[in-house]
Design a protein that fits this description.
Length: 844
């Protein structure tokens, strides 16, 4: 060895193996030749042939080159004839060790490995690993030793022979330890085992599968057996101790059970249209026929039996060839005549071949639907012993009851609806995959009519074009939105049926069903104006309620002298009437803004609010692209109800309103209406009489107006002597101003402003009240005197109203619908008498 290598070797680990090795147990192959394999824990080895007498050995870590690099570890051996493979020295340094005594590194002297040991158990029939699993009495079992100890018994590398080997043991449920097993003809000794490969079969074949343990029920009673292997060759276990996986394998168990079969169900009772499972437990990796017994009279359309789910792991449908020849009771009774008649494709839905797993168990899924007959079913599992052969003794049965489900229905809201509303019907169905609905009530078919055509009796079989049908969701719920627009029903109480099959009322005994009662009401509309009298320039609101969910909204017709609110739209004459959207709560609001009322002439105006009713269509409407704008019946042929509402030949005010109402009252029109009136006046403000006051008085200025409630009025009180002054004059004056709002009064709307005259100078004062939005102004005067307020009240009280009374404002008065030609004629007569009344009328 070069001086460089020697120098580097001094840095490496140096260990001296003592001659005094631990005491040896049974030995085998203790004379080690060159390049043999030794195992940590072995002792009493003669390695002199392997090292060639050299006592210094080196080990090189992975990636090192023994011919050029310094060793990673170096040991000096004191006694080559009694060598101990110490785990303290060789742990983590497995692999080749080289002679370090010469100058040239040749081949490895020997290899060091850590022992590895385990056992496995196999079933003779299935060749499956059944370690820690179950085997059935009389089954055949093979034992395999899995280790890297085969080099321990390599007689070409390790000389000297011996009696030692790996010992295999079987421990009974009672704790006795067996060193031999019955293989069907005699006893097989389990020890010693000297593997010549890493996967070594215990027995005579060694390199091939061989059953050595026949689980004879007279020799081996049911229970759990423990199987393990142990190695103390060359004192390996004595030196290392009992280390699982090293000197002793992990324990492998085998549960020996009697050959039985059992079948259980996860549910005793199943509501049809749901799934359930059965579990078969028997021998591991064994085939069992499982079928629905006693169902030969059932069919595949109605009154069917539960079916096995397809495409299950280790489960396959049985074809009729198997079933018609498979005897299951040891007589001529076969599986084929115990299940329903096969369908056209010859695959049975009611019988399967199921193979258990290594644990002897398998779970099988079954399904039911709306056609599954409600009954108690017997499900049978029987062991297959050969082609078309079942073991007449190894079977078990379980009973499962399939019963009808239930159907429920509820209706949204409070159960009372206006025609035209959408009603949500919903509920559950645990019986079938579909629900069917029909309705009964006054003058409807006794066995039920369609929800969409109530006067037509529903069909009892097949897919009828007038049936109302809905598919049930996976969570057993269903929902149907019933639009009552255009449904020909009178007001009244009705019953809606939901059934699990397509039958009418006469077939309810064959299905599950439920009912819900509903009340149908006719839609209507009511309305009012925000004020019976509106001053020009004030806003006016038409507010009301339209029941029945009119999706088109309501029509708003406002008519007066030379006025129709539709003409306010920019695309006349092509536009239709004015409509207003109805909110979810049935309310609506139509605004006539200040820009509209400002330009209205003073006088009476007529309002008709039109409801489209059941069909959701305005059957009286303006004719598109007509010029002049024409109003006509849009249901069918144009009738004499037509008239012009704008342009040449148009009807004015009350005449237009009368013609519109006549058109809506036509027998072929389902629309209804509500009518009312309001007055438009020139805006005015009046100041009530004030009288004289004294300096220090506190009093209130009041007045009346036809301005709308909430309108703003500026009230100014100024001294009449207020005028431009010279620079040398004081210019002192008194007064006050404020912006106040109009409030609702008894006869007219009112306004008021408080005045504190404590800072006023004695003088004449001017009061001016002026509307901010409208064009209206009023003025008056009063005096503020010196001194104090007299203790005696004045003999004449100030006037509380204007000297000239204005025209009496109109009030709403409902008018019953006349027998013929209803309209606004009575109102016009009242106007001639100087009174204006708001008409309130709606179509019944």
């Amino acid at each position: 060895m070069t001086s460089k290598k020697i120098g580097m070797a001094l840095i490496a680990l140096v260990a001296v193996l003592l001659l005094a090795a631990p005491a040896m147990a049974a030995a085998y192959g203790t004379t080690i030749t060159k390049e043999a394999t030794v195992y940590t824990g072995e002792s009493g080895l003669d390695i002199s042939r392997a090292t060639g007498g050299a006592t210094v050995l080196g080990w090189y870590a992975a990636g090192s080159n023994p011919k050029s690099d310094a060793p990673s570890a170096v040991i000096t051996i004191s006694d080559l004839a009694n060598f101990y493979v110490s785990p303290d020295v060789f742990s983590g340094k497995t692999g080749a060790w080289y002679n370090q005594s010469g100058t040239t590194i040749a081949n490895a002297t020997f290899y060091v490995e850590k022992p590895s040991l385990s056992v496995s158990l196999f079933d003779n029939d299935t060749l499956k690993d059944i370690t820690n699993q179950k085997a059935i009495t009389n089954a055949k079992v093979a034992i395999r030793v899995n280790s890297n100890l085969d080099a321990l018994f390599d007689t070409t590398k390790r000389l000297g022979g011996g009696t030692a080997g790996i010992d295999v043991y079987v421990e009974t449920p009672d704790g006795a330890t067996l060193t031999g097993l019955y293989n069907g003809t005699g006893s097989v000794k389990l020890s010693p085992v000297r593997p010549d490969n890493t996967l070594y079969w215990v027995g005579t074949k060694h390199n091939a599968y061989e059953p050595v343990w026949v689980l004879d029920q007279d020799l081996y009673k049911a229970g759990t057996y423990k199987v393990y292997a142990s190695s103390n060759v060359n004192a390996m276990k004595d030196n290392l101790g009992t280390v699982t996986g090293v000197t002793k394998s992990a324990i492998g168990t085998l549960l020996i059970d009697k050959d039985t079969v059992s079948i259980t169900a996860d549910k005793e009772t199943v509501v049809r249209n749901n799934d359930f499972t059965v579990s078969v437990e028997g021998a591991p990796k064994t085939h069992y026929f499982v079928w629905i017994s006693g169902t030969n009279s059932y069919n595949n359309e109605t009154n069917t039996a539960p079916k096995f789910l397809p495409n299950q792991d280790s489960v396959s449908y049985l074809v009729m060839d198997n079933l018609t020849n498979t005897v299951y009771k040891g007589t001529t009774i076969t599986v084929g005549n115990d299940v329903p008649t096969q369908p056209a494709n010859l695959v049975q839905f009611w019988s399967v071949d199921a193979e258990t797993g290594s644990d002897g168990k398998i779970t099988i899924g079954l399904t039911t639907d709306g056609n599954t007959k409600d009954a108690v079913y017997t499900i049978r599992a029987q062991k297959v012993t050969g082609y078309n052969t079942l073991n007449s003794q190894l079977y078990d049965t379980v009973k499962v009851k399939v019963e009808k489900g239930s159907v429920t229905i509820t209706a949204s809201g409070d159960g009372s609806y206006y025609l035209g509303e959408e009603v949500t019907l919903s509920g559950t169905n645990t019986d079938t995959n579909d629900v069917y609905m029909f309705i009964t009530g006054p003058n409807l078919p006794s066995n039920g009519g369609s929800l969409l055509a109530p006067q037509t009796a529903i069909h009892t079989v097949g897919a009828a074009n007038n049936e109302t049908h809905e598919t049930v969701k996976t969570d057993d719920t269903w929902s149907y939105k019933w639009d009552t627009s255009n449904i020909p029903l009178d007001a009244g109480t009705y019953t809606i049926y939901v059934v699990s099959g397509n039958v009418d009322k006469s077939g309810l005994t064959t299905v599950k069903y439920d009912t819900v009662s509903i009340v149908i009401k006719k839609p209507f509309v009511t309305a009012t104006t925000s004020a019976s009298t509106v001053a020009k320039g004030d806003k006016l609101y038409i507010r009301g309620t339209a029941e029945g969910n009119p999706t088109q909204g309501v029509g708003i017709w406002v008519l007066g002298k030379n006025y129709w609110n539709g003409a306010d739209k920019t695309n006349i004459p092509t536009s239709a009437m004015v409509t207003e959207t109805v909110n979810d709560d049935g309310s609506f609001e139509y605004e006539m803004g200040t820009g509209i009322t400002q330009n209205l002439a003073a006088g009476q105006y007529f309002v008709v609010v039109q409801h489209p009713m059941y069909n959701g269509v305005f059957d009286v409407d303006t004719v598109a692209n007509s010029n002049p704008v024409e109003v006509a019946n849009t249901v069918g042929a144009v009738t004499n109800n037509q008239f012009y509402i704008w342009g040449d030949g148009k009807l004015q005010g009350s005449d237009a309103a009368e013609a519109l109402i006549d058109a809506i009252n036509s027998p072929d029109i389902d629309d209804t209406y509500y009518k009312l009136t309001f007055l438009v006046e020139e805006p005015w403000i009046r100041i009530n009489s004030i009288g004289d006051h004294y300096v220090g008085d506190q009093f209130t200025l009041t007045g009346t107006t036809n301005l709308a409630v909430g309108d703003d009025i500026i009230v100014e009180v100024t001294s009449s002597s207020f005028a431009p002054t010279q620079k040398t004059q004081s210019g002192e004056f008194s007064g006050v101003s404020s912006t106040i709002q109009v409030v609702e009064g008894t006869t007219y709307n009112e306004w008021s402003m408080d005045v504190d005259a404590s800072t006023f100078k004695p003088d004449e004062y001017i009061v001016k009240a002026e509307a901010i939005e409208a064009d209206a102004t009023a003025t008056t005067t009063f005096n503020v005197l010196k001194g104090t307020t007299p203790t005696t009240a004045p003999t004449t009280a100030p006037t509380t109203g204007p000297t000239t009374a204005p025209t009496v404002a109109p009030t709403e008065q409902p008018t019953p619908k006349p027998t013929a030609s209803p309209g606004f004629g009575a109102l016009i007569a009242l106007i001639g008498l100087g009174a204006v009344a708001a008409l309130v009328l709606r179509k019944d």
